[in-house]
Amino acid sequence: MGDIPILQLNGLTKSFDDFTALHPMDLKVRDGEFLAIVGPSGCGKTTLIRLLVGMEDPSGGSIWLRGERIDEIPANKRPTCMVFQSLALFPHRSVGQNIEFPLKLRKTPPAARKERALELLALLRLPEEYYHKRIDQCSGGERQRVALARALAFDPEILFFDEPLSALDYRLRKTLEKELRDLHQRTGKTFVYITHSLEEAMVMSDRIAIMRAGRFEQIAPAAEIYARPTSSFVAEFMGEVNLFDLRDGSGDLLLTGAGNEFATRPGTLMIRPESLRILGPDENAEISMSAQVSAEYMLGSRMQYALSLPSGKAITAELLRENADGPKPGDSLRLGCAASACHLIPEG
Amino acid sequence: MKPSRLSHILLVLYGLLILALLYLPLVSVGFASVSKARYLSFPIRRYSTDWYGKALESDTVRELLILSLKVAGLVTVISMVLGFFGALAFARYQWRFRKLYQKLILLPIFFPQTVLGLALLMWFNAIGIVPSWKTAVVAHLVWIAPIATLIIAIRAYSFDPALEEAARDMGASTGEILREVTIPLLMPGVISAGLFAFLLSWGNFPLSLFTTGADSTLPEWLYAKMVSGYSPLVPTVGMLSVAASALLLACALTIPWILRRVRS
Q: What is the per-residue pLDDT for A254?
């Protein structure tokens, strides 16, 4: 790709007194991309987004928007806009006045403002009557849509989101995630979305950037991060996983054929619970282990088993619930998987 | 649990007793103001509203009212402005001496007003200012502006700092944020602070006594007349003053209600 990224960070850092919130960060965001930045609380993702919109000044490095440096431009002069965690809708103004706020600041004539506000209400599937409603008459989901409409009225180059869905109940959140994905496709805008929920990030985004302690751990599409994490932190962050440290030898694992390759390249071996299957008495696999079932959990279409290996290490396996007589707690069995279904994390 | 019939009756009686204790003295002043006699005595033998007519015609009373209104009006406006910015510093912005400021601003409220008045008088003398109603405005402000600040700060605490950030993010300048977001949101607090400021200044005696110099406010005049030279004008003017306060309060309570009716 020869074209200039819409957003680029070069060695961006932020320190507060003696605490370094962000270590030098580099990032390129493509025009029209939906990028999710995910990390546990305290990882610095909120600090990062506040730097990007201009509410904090960086301690070092630079931010570029379409090849122009913006980190020295104040927040109110930047062509970006953010949907806040609290939404920050003005309680003293109607829905219509909220949406028109950025246009009013630009001295757009009232008639044109209203026309645009009504267009945006339609885009976000809110009835026209909502134009005159007060904010406190709107439900949580409707407020989300009003906040989005207001941000779109600003017509930003990049739309930032600071966990706006975190306060909603599960079902509404699921609906709005899909709507947001859909809105992204219809508007063609660049979205940068901060969240602590990986599930949310996977549903919506084109790429995910995983953050930990002020650094990006991995930036890649969700499928890539899931299958080939670059660190055990990412692997564990991406859901249930079994990790085997191969530096002290193969331990509980019996490696044969292609599996032997892992023994020669020590690192951390990742096996997802759904990659494991139960081996019959005469069956063999490239990677196999014997285990004892300690508990079973019903997951709907699948069953999850907690197992313990001879060394005492606890692992997790997930099997489809097809066969009625699956293993029961106390059973001893052998588990196996193909080497191609595993991933070696080449870290120290 | 639903209260029994007896306890319900007792509760009502208790409430009425409290109200009577609070308001009966005021009622007695009301009666005194419609007595025809030249001296304060109960029971009242002959009723008359003559003194109300005389009070309204009297130049002294008119001057008193104008002076008290001037003082209270100025104190109200200045404390609303000081209170607004003071409350932002108190509740909204993080700055180095905020904790100290929050404590210092409370001090004048807890200071005995007579001591505060005396201290201010000595101070005015020391720097060579002749006390008049203008120095009384300053004295009232020392006590009332912190109260106004606290009232507005309560409002300022309840508002989401992200609102101002969002306005800035959407392109608003500092002036536009103040005009479009901060002032409209704090307005209810500013208005109630103004109301309190007016009533506290209007009825204030100890600070005025020390700091008005040759001028006299209503409460001072009432006191002076009670001490020497009682005339039935005293309860009459007192009642007029109470009526003015009550009228202001009634306006403050009904105007928002009317506005809400008109809007919807």
A: 83
* String of DSSP letters for A21-80: EEEEEEEEE-TT-EEEEE--TTSSHHHHHHHHHTSS--SEEEEEETTEE-TTS-GGGSSE
Look at residues A241, A319, A326, A327 and name the one whose alpha carbon lies nearest to residue A292: A327
Residues in A closer than 8 angstroms to B180, CB to CB, are: 101
- In this predicted structure, what is the pLDDT of residue A348? 53
> Are B170 and A154 inside 8 Å of each other by CB?
yes
pTM of the model: 0.79
Distance of residue A150 Cα from the nearest chain B Cα, in angstroms? 9
B233 pLDDT higher than 90 = no
Q: Which CATH architecture has domain B62-251?
A: Orthogonal Bundle (1.10)
Contact between B170 and A90 using a beta-carbon 8 Å cutoff: no
Confidence band of A195 (pLDDT split at 50, 70, 90): very high
Nearest to A92 among B160, B168, B184 (CB): B184
Q: Give me the CATH code for the A7-235 domain, please.
A: 3.40.50.300
CATH number of A240-345: 2.40.50.140
Beta strands in chain A (DSSP E): 7-16, 19-29, 34-38, 60-65, 68-69, 80-83, 158-162, 190-195, 207-212, 215-220, 242-245, 254-255, 268-271, 277-278, 287-298, 302-308, 314-320, 332-337, 343-345
